[in-house]
Hints:
By secondary structure, the chain is α/β, with parallel strands linked by helices.
Amino acid sequence: MSGPFGATSTTDEVLEGVDLSGKRILVTGVSAGLGVETARVLAAHGAKVVGAARDLAKARRATEEVVAQAAHGGGLELVELDLASLASVRACADALVADGRKFDLVIANAGVMACPKGETSDGFETQFGTNHLGHFVLVNRIASLMKPGSRLVNLSSSGHRFADVDLEDPNFAHTPYAEFVAYGRSKTANILFAVEFDRRHREAGVRATAVHPGGIQTELGRYMTAEVRETLIASINANQPQGAPAFSYKSIPQGAATSVWAGVVAPADAVAAHFCEDCHVAEIVDDPGLRAGVRAYALDPEHAKALWAKSEEMVGERF
């Protein structure tokens, strides 16, 4: 069953009656927030979850409840992954490939948001390098492990509306840096990556989609001051259609619901190469402002191909 679900649906509601026994699922970012909740509900329904995290000690503490609630043969295995280091990404991917066990679902959940200007260990702008390029290399290196019928779910954001990708200056070498512009670029890249990955792999039965979890108070917003939060929420409310309810935060189980809905519950053909929010496929909306829907540039197939080529050039690897 694929619905009816919506903005207030939780992970438990979305997966009610779903048996994931025998499924193997990779989730990045399992040391806090959405990643932990995603791993919890999947393991509770019988999936064998491989949880990736930069800080394994932190992840072990954060996932105690995941292990405690695992049922029907489900469980959790942790692997080390620092998306801001391609050496770490490649080591993680190589270890998974050497292990050889297949995946039914990959959820690219980890990320950073609106951080001060910085660089990854490879010299990429932090948000683009971590949110997009790290996952780009990881997923492509383990693509051979994705079974026919498997899916990739990239966690993007309605924040993709802040900015399209800039293929001429991805590292802000010539462009004034702005935290939310950089975040928007990386979240647009997450969608475009799903579009092109789906095109390349759908004949083999592997599909890809991107999702917006909603506004949730997690560690992701650690760099945002109270003033920045208030300004952002005011902007969201100012751009809502007349009569629409004011912005409100989702709970973490509500925020992770769209990830598991798109990865497990929704028909693959319905969500593939699309952007999903509130447990449904989003409509293309090109009005300015931050509101529901997806910008057309984030789903453009030719734009997705161009980003793929630029990403290969940046990481020095062809896929």
